[in-house]
Write a structure and sequence with these properties.
Shape: elongated
Radius of gyration: 23 Å
Order of helices and strands: HEEEHHHEEEHEEEEHHHH
CATH topology of the domain at 136-285: Nucleotidyltransferase, domain 5
Strand content: 5-15%
Distance between the termini: 42 Å
Strand order of the largest sheet: 6-5-4-7-8
Helix content: 25-40%
Number of helices: 9
Length: 318
């Protein structure tokens, strides 16, 4: 069995740059300033740099200009190793693990991980369950991590009385996930998982012709009438499947997410939770069952660096 890290683009900065250029520019270099294709020449004085040949432009650029890698001092082969490890590990890789494996300091590894998660973030918002008509979409909510007292939102009906909510959802961060049966997942972190916010998420992300599958939660009762069918299973009565009606797919996604967050990352500030969700969404949407290999996931994630910028200052205050 071959070792994935024996590939040439993992061995040196120069080989990694050539691989990245082949992935980003299969038809020749594209100027990051004016967008001209294959109309640039190499700058012999600066390795890796190209100069646009358009008279109105004439600016220098590299394969990382205008991407999440721009102005990074980390060698490109270590960038690609980090991409591969985060794409190949089902439950993620911690910044501490990367800092030890790649030989970079912890802060650099932490920032590197966040930029890779940003590359994994998919901006596509086409409705789930719409392809072919009548697809099944499972919806569910879960709660993870501790929410600060200042952000807890008791019902206004309490009229100032102490907030003493108990149970697994007390003081937790809400996460809502929509899973297309046999397809993609899309997860969200609303400020609070109430009827209005959950209904808005479901309404904006699921095709009207889809069948909606949920548990007995009343959060979906009203919005469920807007779809071709709203079918439920009653978990409180021990019912977890009835024919093809179940929420096992979305429960499986939550299981992977929670095992990774507890076992690998252990702690996640609320301001970063949306990027961790994007990471787990990406791996789930490009899993082996859908025909993707580890290197396929890596190539797709690398394509996501284009047109995005994330500075250390932005991550710290996000």
């Amino acid at each position: 069995m071959s070792n994935a890290f024996d590939a040439p683009h993992f061995q040196s900065h120069e080989n990694a740059r050539a691989w990245l250029e082949a992935q980003r520019w299969p038809d020749g270099p594209i100027c990051s300033h004016c967008g001209s294709i294959n109309h640039a020449y190499k700058n012999k004085a600066k390795p890796g740099y190209y100069r646009c040949a358009e008279k109105e432009c004439r600016k220098d650029f590299t394969v990382t200009t205008g991407t999440l890698m721009e102005r990074s001092h980390i060698p490109l082969n270590k960038w690609l190793m980090a991409f591969y490890l985060m794409c190949a590990s089902k439950k993620g890789v911690s910044a501490h693990q990367l800092h030890r494996s790649l030989g970079i300091d912890y802060k650099s590894a932490w920032f590197l991980c966040h930029r890779i998660r940003e590359a994994m973030r998919d901006g596509k918002m086409d409705p789930l369950g719409g392809a072919g008509g009548g697809g099944i979409v499972e919806a569910d909510e879960t709660y993870f991590g501790n929410l600060p007292e200042s952000k807890r939102r008791p019902s206004p009906q309490r009229k100032g009385r102490p907030y003493i909510k108990k149970g697994r959802a007390a003081g937790k961060r809400a996460i809502v996930a929509l899973v297309e049966r046999g397809g993609r997942v899309r997860s969200f972190h609303p400020a609070v998982a109430d009827g209005a916010s959950v209904a808005a998420i479901v309404r904006e992300n699921i095709a009207r012709e889809a069948r909606l599958h949920t548990d007995e939660s009343r959060l979906y009762t009203k919005v469920g009438h807007e779809f071709s069918a709203h079918e439920t299973v009653t978990h409180s009565h021990g019912e977890y499947a009835r024919g093809d009606v179940h929420t096992n797919s979305v429960e499986g996604y939550f299981s992977i997410f929670k095992r990774g967050m507890r076992g690998i990352y252990q702690h996640c500030g609320e301001k970063h939770l949306h990027r961790y969700l994007a990471e787990y969404d990406f791996r789930y949407n490009h899993r082996v069952a859908l025909g993707y290999s580890d290197i396929d996931r890596t190539k797709i994630a690398v394509q996501g660096i284009v047109g995005k910028r994330l500075t250390y200052h932005q991550v710290g205050r996000a």
